[in-house]
Amino acid sequence: MKITKLETLHIPDYPNILFVGVHTDAGLTGWSDTYYMPDAMRGFIHQFASPMLVGHDPLAIELHWRRLYEVIAHIAGKGAEIRALSAIDCALWDIFGQSTGLPVWQLLGGAARDRIRTYNTCGGPGYGRNRGGRTGYGTDGPADGKYEDLIGFMTRPAELAQDLLSEGITGMKIWPFDYVVHQPGGWDDWRTFKGAFEPNLRTLGGQMISNADLERGLEPFRKIREAVGDKMDLMVEGHGFWSLPAAKKIAHALEPYKPFWIEDLMRADDVDALAELQHSTTTPVLASEYLTTRYEYKPVLDKRAAEIIMIDPTWAGGITESKKIATMAEACKRPVAMHDCTGPFTLMAGIHLAINCTNAMIQETVRAYLRVTYPDMVTDIPVVERGQILAPTKPGIGTSLLPDVRGREGVTSVVSP
Ligand SMILES: [Mg+2]
Q1: How far is the CA of 263 from the centre of ligand 1 (A)?
Q2: Cα(290) to centroid(ligand 1), Å
Q3: Cβ atoms of residues 29 and 72 within 8 Å
Q4: 106-390 falls under which CATH superfamily?
Q5: Where do the domains of the chain lie?
Q6: Distance, CA 144 to ligand 1 centroid (Å)?
């Protein structure tokens, strides 16, 4: 079997996602997706990766990873190049699975479990969607709209927690402190918050948090604990916005509410600062979907800077690299959590890894994505039963693009050579 061409496909309604296909002369095509700056990834895939891969055996997965990584490292590439490599790697695993008739988790060495616990990241159906050429938090939906879980955790957190528990979901991730960082009006403007990309000369940008803002941010935690006690695990998302003293202050204030983890209160770019945060709090620090390859995870593990390791398979280096990162974490007694909130193939890759890796703890999902967004893109959605995702059974990655996607308005496909 030989690789014949690489394809990238973009749907304007989901502006951050790039679908990546690897075609073969056996008639098999492996697919993946990755997220953020699709044009930059397209450039790498068609200018660099395609000439390096076409004509070669798609199942020499380790060889292709190393060859592509060496080119990327040579040009000090980091973000878009690694994300593109990640998607190509996942597509090769999809081909491997399709060609053997086995799901990817089986090819990784088989099951460590037959299902993996999931939690709900409380984004709504508009989270990350195209809104007049820009993407953001998607809080322009109806306040009582179905699966409007971001509006939910800001306005009716107890009701949302009860609703999730009724489905068997016993973990939820929320980010009520985000609105203090970038909005001139802080809390009062939260529904207009477009994200960190908006220029703003009137905020402190996360250097510190006032006591009043801290109390507002704690409100959902307080209300959820009052309503459902300890039945719900609460994950705190910080999106990397805070300084060390602000992160310490938030972490300390959250301790009475016993969060399951505190995630990316700071960016994971200063490992010493991250270690300082971890050692200042009894709550496990989680780091980080922002890290790529074993080489960036190694110092976090070496310095004991986080107790839980988050991996995004289509950002960190693909299935091949994510398995190695998980094993490194296991050697340091750290569990891993797999990232979603991006694209359907990324979620599937995470699930296969979570079924296989002995130290996998939990898989992120967004119920709005599982029920609204992903069914608009792919044929198969993971099966969730009472808060547990069942091991996929189909060969390969276990889902494929809907046949009508190519014909949709504005969809672009680039093929090379
Ligand atoms: Mg996150």
Answers
A1: 6
A2: 8
A3: no
A4: Enolase-like C-terminal domain (3.20.20.120)
A5: 3-101+402-416, 106-390
A6: 25
Query: What does the DSSP assignment read for 62-124?
Result: HHHHHHHHHHHHHTT--HHHHHHHHHHHHHHHHHHHHHHT-BHHHHTT--S-SEEEEEEE---
- Judge whether 19 and 101 are in contact, CB under 8 Å: no
Query: What CATH number is given for 3-101+402-416 in this structure?
Result: 3.30.390.10
Residues 341-356 have pLDDT tens digits of 999 999 999 999 999 9
Q: How far is the CA of 278 from the centre of ligand 1 (A)?
A: 17
3-state SS of 174-230 is: ECCCHHHHCCCCHHHHHHHCCCCCCCCCCCCCCCCCCHHHHHHHHHHHHHHHHHHHH
For the full predicted model, state whether its pTM sits above 0.90: yes
On the question of pLDDT at 4 being above 80, the answer is: yes
In the reported structure, the alpha carbon of residue 341 is separated from the centroid of ligand 1 by a whole-number distance in angstroms of 8
AA letter at 227: A
